[in-house]
Amino acid sequence: MRILVTGKNGQLGRSIQKTVNADTKIGNDQSPNEYIFVGKEDLDLSSKSSISHYFGNNDKFDLIINCAAYTAVDKAEKEQELANQVNHLAVKQLAKIANNQQSRLIHISTDYVFDGESDKPYIETDTPNPINAYGRTKLAGEKALQALMPINAIIIRTSWLYSKYGNNFVKTMLRLGKDRDEISVVNDQMGSPTYATDLADAILEIISHNKFRDLGQTTQIYNYSNEGEVSWHEFAKEIFKIEKIECEVNPITSQQYPTPIKRPRNTLMNKDKIVKIFNIKISNWKSSLNTCMAILKQQ
Ligand SMILES: NC(=O)c1ccc[n+]([C@@H]2O[C@H](COP(=O)([O-])OP(=O)(O)OC[C@H]3O[C@@H](n4cnc5c(N)ncnc54)[C@H](OP(=O)(O)O)[C@@H]3O)[C@@H](O)[C@H]2O)c1
Questions:
Q1: Which member of 70, 134, 165, 224 is catalytic?
Q2: Checking DSSP bridges between strand 190-191 and strand 230-231, what pairing results, if any?
Q3: In ligand 1, which atom is closest to the CA atom of 47?
Q4: Is 134 designated active site?
Q5: What is residue 219's DSSP assignment?
């Protein structure tokens, strides 16, 4: 397959590149796949003409993995038009192109399509109800994709991504923990962290699975995160514990930590579907956090 991966400079895009390169190096990649990684400089999803131009100038792809997104959750309230273009209208355009090329599309979405008011982990068919602009644009992208591509696409909803790349909660905590004696972190938002390398592995497993092989399959949504349930407060405490950082983590409520936007209270997601269909093994959040932090330490 000729595979296009967008968002090559982002956490997930870089994690996929790293895994693909490592597999090629050690000879694990026996698939005849050719990967093309592109960033904003090659394919700007904020511009309709840039998208048409890119696909007009390139050979057909068998699969597009869309890791690019407008991910500045707070800023999205003020930049709704841009967020909507990248997270919704560009996805719609990619879906049209994928249809024309008869290629498949794997699109990454978010737990923020939910309002977080459920007391049970969300399943893929639960009704979304985003409570901020970022979530609304991501949901609009999902819906546009599903309307245009009833077959040949996969949407993977993930949550709380972190990695050695870019900015994320783990890196922020490490920085703050080294500078301060105490910090306050919210303890009333629950979710599951996701190590981007684990998600990259899951995506590569899916595309090599025989259930993915045939064209014409109904478009599906799958949830993916690491296993386990945690608040941001517990997550911060575990980061400091692993790194042996002596910084007090005070639990506070979301009300005590005002941000420009509302964030969902509980976005735990049930992963039974992805496990059952693609036989994906999902690591516990603590073990993946240890893995990522060991890698960060080597840098
Ligand atoms: N991060 C999370 O906690 C989280 C949680 C749930 C779901 N997700 C979803 O998971 C996916 C991957 O997230 P991530 O953490 O890897 O995001 P990320 O690190 O913010 O990377 C996103 C990438 O998209 C690129 N991008 C932004 N605007 C673009 C544009 N106009 N044209 C082309 N590329 C553009 C960015 O390019 P530049 O680097 O040049 O800006 C960046 O490389 C996204 O769909 C996101 O919505 C993320």
A1: 134
A2: antiparallel
A3: 31
A4: yes
A5: P
Q: In this predicted structure, what is the pLDDT of residue 26? A: 63
- Ligand 1, pocket-test mutation among 5, 6, 11, most atoms within 8 A of CB: 11
Site residues for ligand 1, CB cut-off 6 Å: 7, 9-13, 39-40, 43-46, 67-71, 86, 108, 110-111, 138, 158-161, 166
Helix (H) or strand (E) holding 178: helix 169-179
CB 122 within 8 A of CB 225: no
Mean pLDDT score of the chain, rounded to an integer?
A: 96
| Confidence (pLDDT) at 236 | 98
**CA-wise closest residue to 65 among 1, 143, 130, 144:** 1
User: Which mutation among 51, 64, 161, 162 tests ligand 1's pocket best, with the greatest number of atoms within 8 A of CB?
Assistant: 161
The terminus-to-terminus CA distance of the chain in angstroms comes to 34
The 10 Å Cβ neighbour count of residue 235 is: 24
Predicted structure pTM score: 0.97
Question: pLDDT value at position 91?
Answer: 98
CA distances from 239 to 35, 93, 247, 286 (A): 34, 40, 11, 9
Is 132 a residue whose pLDDT tops 90?
yes
Is the pLDDT score of 29 beyond 60?
A: no
Say how far apart CA 118 and CA 128 lie, in whole Å: 11
Whether 190 and 232 have beta carbons less than 8 Å apart is answered as: no
Is it the case that residue 27 has pLDDT exceeding 70? no
